[in-house]
Amino acid sequence: MRSFQYHNPTRIIYGEGEYKNIGKEVAGFGSKVLLVTGKSSLKRSGYFDQVVSSLREAGCRVSVLEGVEPNPRLGLCLKGAELCRRERIEVIAAVGGGSVLDTAKTIAVAALDTGDVWDFFLCKRKITGALPLVTMVTMAATGSEFNTNAVINNEQTGQKYAIHSEHIFPKVSILDPLLSLSLPADQTAYGAVDILSHIIEGYQTAPGKAPLSDRIAEAAMKETMLWARRALDAPQSKEARGNLLWCSSVALGGWTWNGWGPTTFHAHTIEHEISAATNCAHGAGLAVVLPAVMRFHSRNNAAKLAQLAQRVFGVTRYWNDTAEALALRGVNGFKRWLASIGCPVTLGELGVEETQIPEYARKIALNPEAGELDAAMAEEILRFAVG
Amino acid sequence: MRSFQYHNPTRIIYGEGEYKNIGKEVAGFGSKVLLVTGKSSLKRSGYFDQVVSSLREAGCRVSVLEGVEPNPRLGLCLKGAELCRRERIEVIAAVGGGSVLDTAKTIAVAALDTGDVWDFFLCKRKITGALPLVTMVTMAATGSEFNTNAVINNEQTGQKYAIHSEHIFPKVSILDPLLSLSLPADQTAYGAVDILSHIIEGYQTAPGKAPLSDRIAEAAMKETMLWARRALDAPQSKEARGNLLWCSSVALGGWTWNGWGPTTFHAHTIEHEISAATNCAHGAGLAVVLPAVMRFHSRNNAAKLAQLAQRVFGVTRYWNDTAEALALRGVNGFKRWLASIGCPVTLGELGVEETQIPEYARKIALNPEAGELDAAMAEEILRFAVG
Domain B11-179 falls in which CATH fold? Predict the structure, then answer.
């Protein structure tokens, strides 16, 4: 195992009906609350009013910032930060999907900062503090409720970049299966792809041998695939929704990669450029890009991808199989599984033309987190996603 | 999945040579340090002097409390607490096995308390605070470096009881494989049994279905068995020692049981009485008692034990197998494995006579954590451990 540090102080509260306790949890960190939420789905379901009631009953004064969209925008974060300063907000409550949580995390940082918050996304400055944050997630996908990450779209520059800081660990995150029962099939599937990508990206590029982390990663992948199918077959299954929520938290909560050493997240870096340009759902973009990245790694990291194929994707090893052959059978099987749950698997389905690949590749290489992913490598990977 | 709360704020620092950084980590919490350690092995290996140097170089004033023994005693904890008050200790550093860590945790609580600290073990009062604690564990076993538990022997009353409190989560725990290279074979094996028992006890009695937790638990069990064998075959293997250390932290760090609902730890409750009386190693006692408890649960929880047998112990299912038959084959195989790594598997090997069973059973039922484990159940279980 490589050296590692593990730290995740977020308190997870899981259970059906736990959404009613959000007021009590938030009030522990202050009484002046900014409630960040998305568009209309939470209001339609009636949960929005119940959340506000719970906060008010716990003695909180609630300011609301609504309208967070998928691929969340910097402009709304700046508006939220301004609101925090004006209303002397003490704690932020985020109720929604990953976009809502990432917006809330960025607001939590920006509210305490006097400079240009985009500096943090460009790695020009280091985050030194944030308002406390309590989250309640309505969709199993990003794992933002249990980690240090936030991804934001800068609509001015067309960049979609991330921040990472221990200051934006949520203090408490409530996982309530009831809140994701009404999630449509496409978003359920895209969420599952996002969860799987969070595990596979590190798994397939880990330079260190960390057998316990491998097995925990495999556990989370197996259960995600199983419960995604079940949630699509039976959308009202609280069991399926609950298991998916917990898989999503574990996938990016730091449990799976200890001892792996430095890994790369090329599929994410590539996908962020595609969804920034096409506004496709993050999970839809990943369904196209991830198998292409896996095929790319099947050459230099064949043994690890062969292990994935055998232990997770159920690929049988024949006596004369090479590791690369096993790896590729795994990738192809995974791609078929993605198509079977209704995901796009080619760039064309996202409206990206083959002729645009060089231009995308050039932009991808400019991401401050791209690292070794230069334009040539990005182009090679994207070409795997054509057919 | 049943409702659950998960919270574990301990920062884990894993790596070869990380022991040198203990001073820096401890100094973050104060400069007046109580260093708690065991008997001579740490001094013989030369690590003790290096730890003290690291602490002094970081600007700490070090008071030392040495001589913690296996089955750690309350008297030494009280002495340590008195030392803390006299020397105005700000932070405790614990370097050793589980006994050292549990002693340090108890001192951390007792130093801030004016009453009888045994009240907390008898569940008469609730712990409200503790000094900050940094640990460096030299043996893979109790997982005390990553949890809220401490088990102490009261030599006055003959009781061996536990406390559980979020206040005694270590702030930082360093896992350095170098420190456990010299661990003798018997303690290596007993440590592995302790790790496995921490997982199996909950796994086999979980009333709730939590498939991801099941798989994480199975992951930790498989890797523990694999690396225990390897550490016995090649005691100087840093890979084996490191993997065992991490398995031990994960086993009792709260990752494996989320959604299981309330579980029982009867093997621990029974074993504490046996080691309190015979002074046998905790892991040796568990090797005798745990298979007996597993056999007991094979009746009322056959499906779960059958899953354990198939997924972890490699038992094959034949067409006409009942769950109970599979479960029992698993238990018998596990017992053979325990014997194969040099563990006792019968009460006789611990010096406990069959005629003493009723007396033990009576005492076991008095443990405040015994719950449904009454004298009759304890006697039935102990009789399974005779032959």
Answer: Rossmann fold (3.40.50)
Q: Where are the domains of chain B?
A: 11-179, 183-384
Look over chain A and give the mean of its residue pLDDT values, rounded to a whole number: 96
Quick one: pLDDT at residue A316? 95
What's the pLDDT at A92?
A: 98
The pLDDT-based confidence of B372 (bands split at 50, 70, 90) is very high
- Residue B85, pLDDT above cutoff 80: yes
Residues in chain B within 8 Å Cβ distance of A3:
14-16, 18
pLDDT (tens digit per residue) in A25-78: 999 999 999 999 998 788 888 899 999 999 999 999 999 999 999 889 999 999
Report the first-to-last Cα separation within chain A, whole angstroms.
Answer: 38
**Nearest CA of chain B to the CA of A257: how many Å?**
12
Classify domain A183-384 by CATH architecture.
Up-down Bundle (1.20)
Kindly report the three-state secondary structure assignment for every residue of chain A: CCCEEEEEEEEEEECCCHHHHHHHHHHCCCCEEEEEECCCHHHHCCHHHHHHHHHHHCCCEEEEECCCCCCCEHHHHHHHHHHHHHHCCCEEEEEECHHHHHHHHHHHHHCCCCCCCHHHHCCCCCCCCCCCEEEEECCCCCCHHHCCEEEEEECCCCEEEEEECHHHCCCEEEECHHHHCCCCHHHHHHHHHHHHHHHHHHHHHCCCCCHHHHHHHHHHHHHHHHHHHHHHHCCCCHHHHHHHHHHHHHHCCCCCCCCCCCCCCHHHHHHHHHHHHHCCCHHHHHHHHHHHHHHHHHHHCHHHHHHHHHHCCCCCCCCCCCHHHHHHHHHHHHHHHHHHCCCCCCHHHHCCCHHHHHHHHHHHCCCCCCCCCCHHHHHHHHHHCCC
Strand pairing partners for B12?
A6, B173
CA A6 to chain centre: 19
Complex prediction ipTM? 0.96
Taking only residues 223 to 242 of chain A, the set having a beta carbon closer than 8 angstroms to any beta carbon of chain B reads: 223, 226, 239, 242
Is B243:B249 a contact under the CB 8 Å cutoff? no
Minimum-distance CB partner of A9 among B9, B212, B247: B9
pLDDT reported for residue A41: 81
B 259-278 → A contacts, CB under 8 A: 259
